[in-house]
Design brief:
The chain is α+β, with helices and mostly antiparallel strands. The protein is built from 21 helices and 12 strands. Bound molecules: adenosine-5'-triphosphate and magnesium ion.
């Protein structure tokens, strides 16, 4: 599976030129090299440059220790308690510099442990829990060892500033050419060590349009339920990355096919399988396609909006049930949202402020139903308005009534007063009589 010795791809046989790198990264690489250290770009940036994509950030590995790095760079901050990394600050840009680390013993063996345990498991530098998950992984190593501890072959390529070559210790170039996501080492071991790697496999496959290699995919099918063992706060961050990577629709497909989606969102998945008015719940499919369109247009999608797009229909149904049981609409939305995210927190911990923002987006939809309603301007100035309006737009993409509401508010925002007749409020048009004489002057405008 892995190549025994690294293959070196010389400068004339690969497309990465120094001009395509961040000038700050080049500066760091040169300074390390000029001080006698090995210095290489590594990970996502090498992968992306080889694919002709723009890297998100530039990570460097070196044989200099964190203390030596700190001595070389005044703009250096050491971070990380478990494994010390150097962050070099250049204004907005941060270049991460890590010292070569060794792979865990089992990973290097490239075989599953015979009975799931051996002495290496007890090695306190690679501490695992009883199920084989890595809890600590902090031993300096050689460049080859550092490549072996990484997740996928395409993420383990390095660009060596000494001779501008690419160093490939694990067959990453081949997999890059064939469009394959393949774990380094035995997939069952690697996904057990860190279940989040399964989500990373899905993200890279979706983002790059790659296939997950068969053994790695089979291991994901088998281990999908173990994703629940990862830290809930980390899973929240991963979910955002997965659905905001620009390929949310494909991500969703892969998550569902692999069983990871059910493991992450069991209650929601159950509901998706049921029907409303004879139709299955396909809203999340449309939502992911809509998110991808926004990303392509360069429009940001905030975490609360993303979660509302994903779960809004479900939450609205649940709150309707509470309303049917006698609860007023606003508290019902807040209760349904709190209940859903509260339940989810054991697996995926959504921060409280984000849960509150989701409830706010959903509550605003009731106000849109009353368009034009009283004092539209004060509604527009609510903090939740922008995302609530985006959510209305999404709803409007498949519902003519909502689309008319979108049009009214667009005109309002553009400063044009639309004719009342053009507005057909949503499902439950309510006639509101304006009570004359009770209007308060807006604060600050009173004489
Ligand atoms: P992105 O473009 O999303 O930043 P990336 O590949 O750079 O992709 P990072 O999360 O920035 O991903 O991680 C940098 C590198 O660190 C990866 O390319 C990989 O080599 C290694 N890495 C990250 N997470 C893991 C993990 N969970 N297990 C093993 N190696 C990892
Ligand atoms: Mg990265």
């Amino acid at each position: 599976m892995n190549q025994p010795s690294p293959s070196i791809i010389s400068r004339d046989r690969h497309p990465i030129s120094r001009r395509s790198l961040s000038p700050n990264a080049v500066k760091v690489l040169y300074r390390l090299r000029d001080n006698g250290f090995i210095a290489c770009l590594v990970g996502g940036c090498v992968r992306d440059l080889l694919l002709g994509r723009e890297p998100k950030d530039f990570d460097i590995v070196t044989d200099a220790t964190p203390t030596q790095i700190k001595k070389l760079f005044r703009n250096c901050r050491l971070v990380g308690r478990r494994f010390r990394l150097a962050h070099l600050h250049f204004g907005e840009e941060i270049i991460e510099v890590a010292t070569f680390r060794s792979a865990s013993p089992e990973t290097a063996l490239n075989e599953p442990p015979e009975d799931g345990r051996d002495d290496a498991d007890r090695d306190e530098l690679h501490l695992r829990d009883d199920d084989g998950m890595l809890l600590r992984d902090n031993l300096f190593g050689t460049p080859e060892e550092d490549a072996l501890r990484r997740d996928f072959t395409i993420n383990a390529l390095t660009y060596n500033i000494a001779d501008f070559s690419i160093v490939d210790s694990v067959g990453g170039m081949d997999d890059l050419q064939h469009g394959l996501i393949r774990t380094i080492g035995f997939p069952l071991v690697r996904f057990t060590e860190d279940p989040v790697r399964m989500l990373r496999a899905v993200r890279f496959a979706a983002l790059l349009g790659f296939e997950i290699e068969k053994d790695s995919w089979d291991a994901i099918l088998q281990l999908a339920p173990t994703i629940q063992r990862a830290a809930p706060a980390r899973l929240y961050e991963e979910i955002l990355k997965l659905f905001l990577c620009g390929e949310a629709a494909r991500t969703l497909q892969l998550l569902r096919q692999s069983g990871l989606f059910t493991a992450l969102f069991p209650r929601f998945e159950e509901w998706m399988a049921t029907e409303s008015d004879g139709f299955p719940h396909t809203g999340i499919g449309r939502a992911t396609a809509w998110v991808d369109d926004r990303r392509r247009e360069g429009e940001p999608v905030s975490p609360p909006l993303l979660l509302t797009l994903m779960f809004g229909q479900y939450l609205a149904e649940r709150s309707e049930r509470l309303v049917a049981g006698g609860m007023p609409p606003q508290p019902a939305i807040h209760a349904a949202t709190a209940d859903f995210f509260g339940d989810l927190a054991a697996t995926v911990r959504v921060p409280q402020r984000v849960c509150t923002a989701v409830a706010a987006i959903l509550s605003c939809q009731g106000r849109f139903d009353r368009t034009p309603g009283k004092r539209p301007q004060s509604f527009v100035s609510r903090p939740a308005f922008a995302d609530a309006f985006r959510y209305l737009r999404f709803a409007g993409s498949s519902d003519a009534d909502r689309q008319r509401l979108v049009a009214w508010w667009e005109q309002h925002l553009a400063g044009v007063s639309p004719p009342e007749a053009s507005v057909t409020p949503g499902p439950a048009p309510r006639k509101k009589r304006r009570r004359r004489g009770r209007r308060r002057p807006r604060s600050g405008t009173a004489a």
